[in-house]
Task: inverse folding
């Protein structure tokens, strides 16, 4: 080979090195672990992870291309949360997505260094998962499910659609600190509405059934479900069935309860949180730290009413409530 041709060829190879290195960098597979609080056949959960994947795609991440997602499904079981959190951490992910407060805790027990982005999580400061909303200071950040003051709005809505309600059972998980905070917010507004509150724990199905049945023996009763915690979600079909059986008007924290037969719900729109979570995952994959990313409050709330359930309870939903509703199920 002549000297001039060799120099020309070498120059072409050297010029190609940066392009080759850039291509190789783009093709590095990043790894995300996702631990869902629901079961794998839950249609709401499938819509949520689809929104998360779409959010990643909008930011240049291709599942199976430059990012891999490992899923685990906890089905509302805290023991499963701990087991699967440890499994996902053992896979050495670049970041994990936690879909409940108890899942954040399980991940932090497994690792204090793996970055965590959480969604639909009640009171992350009170749970001890972050130091503050503005500056988390730990390996976790994400999207909270709303302020405690919103819980008082649930009681106001319940009285608006069922003015005769004088006694309300507040269903919560006593092992979750945020459940107590939600109860306290409802207690703040109860006297002004002339309502007596009865806390109801959700440790197991038997306790729920016995307590609600005993509560329903009195007149003018209603239900508020504080959550959504994993334990509450695990028994949601039972609670909805008991409300129907004992003819108790009930308000729930999320749309999925109303689509299953609940009367009314008001709360943060969860699919939107999963889509927004992709932005934090993207920023962490690009080098930012969870400790420096502020926890965000919901930007979208939704009011959903089930007219079929209202009719079964002989309730007429006020036109003002229907006008505010984001969705009316007939």
Result:
């Amino acid at each position: 080979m002549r000297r001039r041709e060799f120099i020309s060829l070498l120059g072409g190879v050297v010029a190609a090195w940066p392009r080759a290195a850039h291509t190789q960098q783009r093709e590095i597979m990043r790894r995300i672990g996702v631990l869902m609080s629901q079961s794998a056949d839950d249609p709401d959960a499938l819509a949520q992870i689809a929104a998360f994947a779409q959010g990643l795609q909008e930011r240049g991440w291709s599942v199976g291309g430059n990012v891999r997602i490992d899923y685990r499904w906890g089905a509302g079981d805290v023991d499963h949360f701990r087991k699967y959190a440890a499994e996902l951490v053992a896979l050495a992910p670049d970041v994990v997505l936690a879909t409940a407060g108890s899942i954040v805790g399980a991940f932090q027990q497994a690792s204090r260094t793996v970055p965590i982005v959480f969604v639909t999580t009640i009171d992350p400061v009170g749970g001890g998962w972050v130091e503050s909303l503005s500056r988390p200071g730990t390996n976790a950040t994400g999207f909270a499910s709303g302020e405690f003051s919103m819980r008082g709005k649930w009681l106001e809505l319940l009285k608006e659609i069922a003015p005769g309600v004088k006694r309300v059972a507040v269903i919560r998980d006593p092992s979750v600190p945020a459940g107590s905070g939600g109860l306290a917010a409802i207690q703040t507004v109860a006297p002004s509405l002339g309502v007596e509150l009865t806390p109801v724990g959700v440790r197991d199905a038997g306790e729920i059934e016995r307590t609600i049945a005993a509560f329903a023996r009195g007149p003018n009763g209603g239900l508020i479900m504080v959550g959504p915690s994993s334990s509450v979600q695990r028994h949601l079909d039972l609670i909805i069935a008991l409300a129907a059986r004992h003819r108790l008007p009930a308000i729930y924290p999320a749309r999925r309860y109303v689509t299953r037969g609940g009367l009314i719900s008001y709360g943060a729109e969860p699919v939107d949180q999963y889509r927004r979570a992709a932005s934090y995952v993207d920023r962490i994959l690009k080098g930012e730290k969870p400790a420096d990313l502020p926890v965000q409050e919901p930007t979208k709330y939704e009011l959903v009413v089930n007219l079929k359930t209202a009719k079964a309870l002989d309730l007429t939903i006020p036109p003002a409530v229907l006008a505010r509703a984001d969705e009316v199920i007939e």
Observations:
- The longest helix spans residues 3-26.
